[in-house]
Amino acid sequence: MIRTADGQVNLKALEELLQKRLNSESSANPPLQIHCVLREETPIVLIRCPESIIPYPKQIFSLLRQALQEEQIWENSPISMYLIWQDQERSDIFNHWLADWQPRKAIGDRDESSLESKDSQKRETRRKSGLLAGIGIGIALLLGGWYALTRPCAIGDCPAIDRAALSEVKLSASNQDLLEARQQLERTIETLQAIPGWSKHRTQAEILLADYHKQWESLTKITAAIATIEQATSLAQNFSYPNWEEIRQLCQKAIASLQQVPPESQWYAIAQARKRDYHKKLAGIEQRQQAQSLANTSLRMAQETAKLARIRQKNAQSPTDWQLVLATWQTSIRNLREISPQTNTYQQAQRLLAIYTPQLIAVQTRYKQEQSAASSYQKAIEQAKLATDAEANARWSAAASNWRSALIYIKQVPRNTFQYRQAEPLIAIYTLAFDRAARLQQTNSILQQICQPDNEICNWAIADSAIKINLTSSYIQRVRETAIQAQASASWQVQVELLDRIATLEKSLQSLSNHIGKRVEVYNADGRLMIVYQPSE
Fold it and tell me: 131 with 42: CB under 8 angstroms?
C-alpha cells in the first residue's frame, strides 16, 4: 500500500511504484534511479541520473506526476520532485545529502502501536508543518533543478559547440575584420565557459577553450599591433611636425607584438603578413627620420655658414675676399635647398632662403664689380707701363695712345670697390701724362713738318725744359752752297728764296716755342748753340 492506515505515504512503496513506472515507460540507459525521502513529514522524490544529461526532463516529471495522480497521492500530499545529475564528485555530495535526509525509519516499517499512540490533533499539526516545510524545500529544489536545466548544453545536443568553430579570416582581412574576429572569439569563449561541469559536453568545451584561449592571445597580439600602428599613423598625419622617433618606436612595438604570435597559431600567417607590411612602414619611417635628421643638420650648417659669410663679408676687400664670401653664401643656400619638403624644417628653410637669397645676389653683384674693378685697374697699369716705355723711346704717338687707354681703364673702376682707392689718385696722374704725351705728340708732329719737309733739315730731342734742334750738316752745306752760287751769279732771286726759307724756319721754331711753352735751342752740326727761341708771353 502507498498510504498507511493513518494516511501517511509509505516511502518504500512509493519508491518501488515510481521506479517500476519509470523503468517501464522511460528509455533512459542506464536507467534512472528513484529515491524517496522524508523531510519533516514531507515526501521528497529524487530522480538520480547516472550520466551527465537526460534527453527529456519534462517528460520524466510528467510521467512521475501522472503516476502520483493515479494513486491519488499528488492531490492529497505535498510531494516535491528533484532531478540530480551525477558525476563522481557530485555522487559523494548526493549520497551525503541523501543520508542526511533519510528518516530514521521508513514509514512503511513503522510500529503500528506507535502510530496508534498519536492523536489526530498532533497529526494535523505535524501535517501542516510538514506541508509548509515541504513547499519551501520543494520550491528551492525545483528552482535549483530549473537553473541546472537552463544551463547551456545541460541536456541533449550542444549547439554552442557547433557554433564555436572559428570563421576563416583571409590574409587580406581588414583591421575591422580582425577586430570583429576577436569579438566573435570572445563571445565563443564566454559561451563555452557557460557550459556546466556536469554536462557531457564539458570535456569537449574544455579542449576548445584551451585552444581558443591561445588563439585569443594571438589575436589580441595582432589587434594590439593594429592599434599601435594606427596610433603611429595618427601621429604621422595629424601633426605638422611629427616626432619620428616616437613613431618609429611605436612601429617597432607593433612588430614585436606580432612576433609573439606562435607558428602553430591559426593567426600566424596573418601576423606574418602584417609584420612584413609593418616592416615596410618602419623602413619608410626610418627613411623619414633619416631625412629629418639630415634636414636638421643641413639647417644647422646653413645657419652657421650664413653667420660665417656675414663675418667674411664685413672684412672683405679684394676680389679674392669677395669670391670667398660668395662661395660661403652659396654653400649656405645650397644646404637650405637640400632640405626636403617632407621634413618639419622645410618651412623654416624657406624663410631663411627668402632672407639669404637677396644677400647672395648682392654679394654676386659686388663680386662682379670687384672683378671688373680689378680687371680695369690691371689693364690701366699695363697701359701706363707701355706709355712710359714709349716715352722713353720718344715714341710720343704710342705714348699718347697708351696713356689714353690707361686713363679710360682707370676711370672704369667703380667708386664703391676696393680697387677704387688705388685707382682714384692715378686718374689725375694719367690725365697729366696723357696731356703731356699728347702735346709732345703734337710737338713731334710739328717738328717733323719743320725738319723733314722734303729733305732732312734737322734732328730734335724733346726734353722737359727745352727742345734741342740740331741742324744737319747736309742742310747747312746746302744753304752755304746756295748762298755762294747766288752771290757768284749775282742772282738776287735765289738769294731771296734762300732768305725766305731761313726766315720760315726761324718763324716756325719761334711759333713752336710759343705753342709748347718751352724754349727751342738750335745747334749747328758741330753742336754749337746758334740761337735760342723763347716762348712769347
Answer: yes
